[in-house]
Amino acid sequence: MTDLRVNNLSVPVEGCHLVKGASYTLRPGELIVLLGPNGAGKTSLLRASLGLIRTDGGTAELGDQQSRKLSSLQRAKRVSYLPQTRPLAWPNRVRDVVTLGRFAFGTALGRLSEREEQAVMQAMEACDIQHLADRQTNTLSGGELARVHLARAFAAETPLLIADEPVAGLDPRHQFRVMDLFKDYVRRGGGVLVVLHDIALAARYADRMIWMQSGEIVADGTPQETLTEQRLEEIYGIRAEVNGLDVRFSGVS
Ligand SMILES: Nc1ncnc2c1ncn2[C@@H]1O[C@H](COP(=O)(O)OP(=O)(O)OP(=O)(O)O)[C@@H](O)[C@H]1O
């Protein structure tokens, strides 16, 4: 079973720490939303968990191996990572960008097996971009391009999927649609960890919420356990009324 186990992880930078002693586990069959204000250390935690940046304490394991010891191909077979900024080296056809998601499995553009073709088509359909298949990526709107990147991540069909603000820039319908896709992925046995800034959306979809502040995980539990008026006040400095999973914001405190 592939899970991501992070224990007491710290990320140093210039004499201080971007992440301090963070511990959590991402297991197949659950959707975790990672929350926290700008600069709290969410991206740094994700990158450190995947072994992509230097750490100076703690461990991060993906399945049976330490993340930092995995080759990029080994890592790409276990987890799809959708970073916050998604540079494309050069404009390309949408279908080809989505096909790159199969790269770790030895897929070469133009030589797709039926199985590979199916994975790419399904991912494009799920992300509502099949009509854009032959378009060049530099002609797409921001939201369309975000869905292309998502489709690339889905096409990989990895056991785990980690996405940093995957719904930023999407209209409300596509935000729900993308979150529904993550839920389906989890129902089929995958594990998903996403960063969201929309607390109401997070409450609606998360099995667990991990809250970060100043480089530390300050809470980890179900929305029912961790989403409280006091927490929103402490972490974000905002006033809100919380009734179960329903959140009504009334301003900054
Ligand atoms: N290489 C670096 N050198 C110095 N500071 C850095 C470096 N990388 C990140 N930081 C700082 O560390 C803090 C945490 O950054 P990080 O991107 O992890 O936050 P975040 O919670 O993902 O924020 P956001 O919600 O704005 O995306 C920020 O203040 C950022 O400026």
UniProtKB/TrEMBL annotation:
GO MF, one annotated term: ATP binding
Key words of the record: ATP-binding, Nucleotide-binding, Translocase, Transport
Protein role: Part of the ABC transporter complex HmuTUV involved in hemin import. Responsible for energy coupling to the transport system.
CDD domains tied to this protein: ABC_Iron-Siderophores_B12_Hemin
SMART domains given in the database record: AAA (SM00382)
Protein name (Swiss-Prot/TrEMBL): ABC transporter ATP-binding protein
Keyword Nucleotide-binding applies: yes
Organism: Ponticaulis profundi
Annotated ranges, domain ABC transporter: 4-239
